[in-house]
Amino acid sequence: MPARFSHASCELLLTTECNLRCSYCIERDLPVLSMPVEVGTRAIDMFMFLAEGATTAEVTFTGGEALLRFRDLRSIVSHVRKTAKERGIACQLILKTNGTILSPRIIDFLVEGSWRVVVSIDGTPTSHDRHRKDKSGKPTQKTVSYNIAALQRHGIECVASMTVHPDNSFKVVSNVRACFINTCAG
Prior knowledge:
This protein is of the alpha/beta class. The protein has a single domain, classed as Aldolase class I (TIM Barrel, Alpha-Beta Barrel). Helix content is 39%, strand content 19%. A 5-stranded parallel β-sheet has the order 1-2-3-4-5, covered by helices on one side. The longest helix has 18 residues, at 70-87. It is globular.
């Protein structure tokens, strides 16, 4: 029987916790919950079973801020790679992050695999920092820009994700240009 789909996609919410306090985010209203590694590996087992016959699959890790659960992420990714290989499925790994938590250890881990990193950045420092602050109220755009450049220097595929808030909606063009000219160009 032929496969129903040639490509399958799965997204794992590793935690609702975040290290930022973005003014437009619902995270502050959520209880802090984290996915145990055992639940993540069982979810991957079920996903790979349901993806039977697909030639490609993608697994997205998100949060809150997924990198707050880096140890768990590494364990689940190891299981994803093993299971995908056993089933003959080429697997793309995607990490959604606010871009503020990137250490040399995390970058080394991302360099090892087939990763696409989706980084939330809302454009110019003025637009980004208006809503995306850390828990102490400090701006984050400079850190995010620096970390995007670090990802690119290491050859890691990087995608910018912009949240357009109504009070910045008239600045969409300049914010996109800022991302591509200043930030995403490294």
